[in-house]
Amino acid sequence: MSATPVVTRFAPSPTGYLHIGGARTALFNWLYARGRGGKFLLRIEDTDRERSTPEATDAILRGLTWLGLDWDGEAVSQFARRDRHAEVAQEMLARRHAYKCFSTQEEIEAAREAARAEGRSTLFQSPWRDADPATHPDAPFVIRLRAPREGETVIEDAVQGTVRFRNDQLDDMVCLRSDGTPTYMLAVVVDDHDMGVTHVIRGDDHLNNAARQTLVYQAMGWDVPVFAHIPLIHGPDGKKLSKRHGALGVEEYQAMGYPAAGMRNYLARLGWSHGDAEFFTDAQAQEWFDLGGIGRAPARLDFKKLENLCGQHIAVADDAALLHEIEGYLAARGDEPLTGDQRDGLLRGMYSLKERAKTFPELLEKAHFVLTSRPLSYEPKAEAALDPVSQGILRELTPQLQSASWDRQALEEAVAKVAEGHGVGLGKLAGPLRAALAGRTVTPSVFDMMLVLGREETIARLRDAT
């Protein structure tokens, strides 16, 4: 008999952007499912109607799409399934695994106050738990889970190990409110069961929820999924990630010019490891990723490591794919789109631009020479490099380039010959050449610029500068 196919899910609340911690949770679920030929599902937990917004849902979907985390089927709305959740609450009631509780908020608070005064546990114990249904009043009620009062609930967590919860510390949680709406705790279990989720991989801030949710699975006689609670991400200072550490939303990272492949690689390494591997492809990540490689300690965000990995991914990326992602970056920033000529020039020059660029702003900075157009504006240093002597040498070089074959060796020979004739080294001529071709003194190699610009544009720029 074949093993049950793996089904994972990512279940964000649409109350804001896709947080970097949520993005890593989504990535871990995606990697685990994709590496095992399973399914990765998306559920929008929009039961909090006051705080959930369509804009936040759109932001989450955009963030996942930019990261390249594709999900199977349509995204499921938790709110749309509220009738199904209520149906399960009624079924638990019929099985006597749940009961109607008529206690009012005032009565619950009074019971807690009394417990506090007597030094007892403030866990509310409903007087309706074992009440005869014949004594039920005609009044609003909630449906509570009839949780066991003795023994333990044990979670065999794939990351945290065996975690035990004393049942006398778990309350009879509300599953259905008095207005007939389900609580989050019930909805999550029903959705995970109905969606066939086999592995629940989520932040360890949900570990306590796992105990209470396990009781719902048991009450319904359903298989409990494998739980894997992953440590949260901390800032570089070891404190919980917050605004003071910089960007929190995934879309902010896109707008800062980090490539998605570098982000995926970095987030995968944030709290998970495979030997000493730092740089790896998606295919390798999917093949290697397992729950055993996730550490129990919180991971720390490190922007230097992120930039280093992003630089490596830019260097090996396909040129056309890189151009497409750069266009997405410009759109995310609200910048002007590239013209057709700029796109063509970037593609031609990509081989010389992607080495050692850690982000798209760095790459575009190097690409200035091909993105700008005549007449060039010269930076002060570039203007200083174009002194009368240098201009004279460039004027002499121009006809030599007109008749040279337009390949690297021929261009190098032509420039070297003119430099030699003036008793200067090639390096001495490179400064004025950079200034003439780019209007700047920090650029890619002058020969790369000439090859990318082409004969006509190169000569036109030299003439403008002299």
Automatic annotation (TrEMBL):
Originating species: Halodurantibacterium flavum
NCBIfam families given in the database record: gltX_bact
Reactions this protein catalyses: tRNA(Glu) + L-glutamate + ATP = L-glutamyl-tRNA(Glu) + AMP + diphosphate
Residue stretches making up the Aminoacyl-tRNA synthetase class I anticodon-binding domain: 341-465
UniProt superkingdom: Bacteria
Assembly and oligomerization: Monomer.
Protein residues bound to ATP: 243
This protein's UniProt keywords: Aminoacyl-tRNA synthetase, ATP-binding, Cytoplasm, Ligase, Nucleotide-binding, Protein biosynthesis
Protein name: Glutamate--tRNA ligase
EC number: 6.1.1.17
